[in-house]
Design goal:
Layout: H1 2-68, H2 74-99, H3 112-120, H4 126-142, H5 146-161, H6 164-204, H7 206-228, H8 238-254, E1 259-266, H9 269-276, H10 278-292, E2 301-304, E3 309-315, H11 319-334, E4 339-340, E5 343-344, E6 349-355, H12 363-379, E7 385-387, H13 388-395
Parallel strand pairs: 6-7
Antiparallel strand pairs: 1-3, 1-6, 2-3, 4-5
Helix pairs in contact: 1-2, 1-5, 1-6, 1-7, 2-4, 3-6, 4-5, 6-7, 9-10
């Protein structure tokens, strides 16, 4: 009888152990699938957000090219015409991918309806603005009259400033918010799976499964970091950067301390990617980040706001002090050793500097001024810094 009871006890324990392993295997498989889904979602989200952000850059580039078209010699207008056509075609393709194509959101994603309403709804209707903008650019390209081109360039320029830019920015924010919500939902599912695995592990054999628990926790932490930062430079992504900048600016202004922002743009980054490939561009971004680290203090806020533009909020620095740091950054980057295919590649940056004022209701206001200064630096030949106050004086 005792032998039979022992046999049944052993059989029950064996069955329980095998069943526990089966549950753990099932939960582990589920968690792995969730993690793969999170990674796939993050990759698509990053591609979508980057594509949406580049729409803004392309529209501004077209606006600038059309504005200077009739100021350059006739021999160079052909190249400008080709550049405008290329940017327009790229912008159309990206827009198609985002609105109805490969990068459009599936109906089950959190903000899919909001994003579709932003594109095609009655209140925002980005689609109408995009069609009008592209039609105006086509008319500009087809026009043989300088006077007609000037009128069209003014219209294109107004679109490239407002309202198209605002709506494109809103689209980027919506894509980022959708990515954050979906990541939070998937992370929550992953967390539930984690706790189920943990309870089973504690009940069965804590020492056996401890390494698995540690790995799961590590993966969760890495995914959270990935959701809020740029993996190449270590800076915050655009959405997180502006969220944290709001707190940094508010704190500085409450303490009556100056705070400034500098926008760093890598010169000729796109041609480098096209010539040497994306891997070379990624390597440059990493080396750029390493060179930049000594200039970042503990309370500075660093983020990647577009593909080749980076922002630093500097509490305690007025515009003049920030400009001095910006000049040191510019010099060190110009001295940076970077090689591809055994050849040294010169690397330079253009930098815009602007102070945050008490009138700024959002850090984006100061960033816009710094971006205007950056644009001026690029127009003046790149590899230089421009302070927004000097831009204002030139305009006045």
């Amino acid at each position: 009888m005792r032998l039979r009871q022992k046999f049944h006890s052993v059989s029950f324990l064996t069955f329980s152990y095998v069943a526990a392993l089966g549950v753990i295997a099932l939960l582990a498989t589920t968690r792995t699938l969730i993690e793969h889904k999170i990674i796939a979602h993050q990759e698509k989200s990053a591609q979508t957000i980057n594509m949406a952000g580049r729409q803004r850059m392309r529209s501004q580039r077209i606006g600038w090219l059309t504005a200077v078209y009739d100021t350059v010699p006739a021999t160079k207008q052909g190249q400008l015409h080709d550049d405008i056509s290329r940017y327009l075609a790229s912008m159309r393709q990206s827009y198609s991918d985002l609105s109805t194509g490969t990068l459009s959101l599936s109906p089950d994603e959190p903000l899919a309806a909001d994003i579709r309403d932003h594109y095609f709804g009655k209140t925002q209707h980005l689609d109408a603005d995009m069609k009008d903008f592209t039609a105006t650019v086509e008319a500009f390209l087809a026009s043989d009259s300088a006077a007609q081109r000037a009128k069209l360039a003014d219209k294109i320029g107004s679109y490239a400033r407002r309202p198209l830019i605002d709506k494109l920015d809103t689209a980027v924010d919506l894509y980022q918010a959708n990515a954050d919500r979906e990541s939070a939902r998937l992370s929550l599912m992953s967390m539930y799976s984690y706790f189920a695995v943990l309870v089973t592990l504690l009940a069965e054999a804590l020492l056996i499964f401890r390494p698995a628990v540690k790995r799961i926790e590590q993966q969760r932490a890495e995914l959270m970091v990935y959701a809020h930062s740029d993996p190449l430079t270590g800076g915050f992504n655009r959405h997180t950067f502006f969220d944290m900048a709001q707190t940094s600016v508010t704190t500085a202004l409450k303490k009556d301390k100056p705070i400034s922002v500098i926008i760093i743009g890598l010169d000729h980054f796109k041609p480098l990617n096209e010539r040497y490939g994306q891997a070379a561009g990624d390597e440059l971004l990493k080396e750029f980040s390493v060179t930049l680290q000594p200039f970042l203090r503990g309370d500075d806020l660093f983020g990647r706001i577009t593909g080749d533009e980076f922002a630093i909020f500097m509490p305690g620095f007025d515009e003049e002090a920030a400009a001095r740091v910006a000049e040191d950054i510019r010099f060190d980057i110009s001295e940076m050793a970077f090689e591809q295919e055994g050849k040294p590649i010169p690397v330079t940056v253009s930098i815009g500097v602007a102070a945050v004022t008490v009138a700024d209701t959002h850090p984006a206001n100061a960033v816009q001024r710094a971006e205007k200064a950056l644009s001026t630096a690029r127009q003046q030949g790149r590899n230089r810094i421009v302070v927004f106050t000097n831009v204002e004086k030139d305009i006045a």
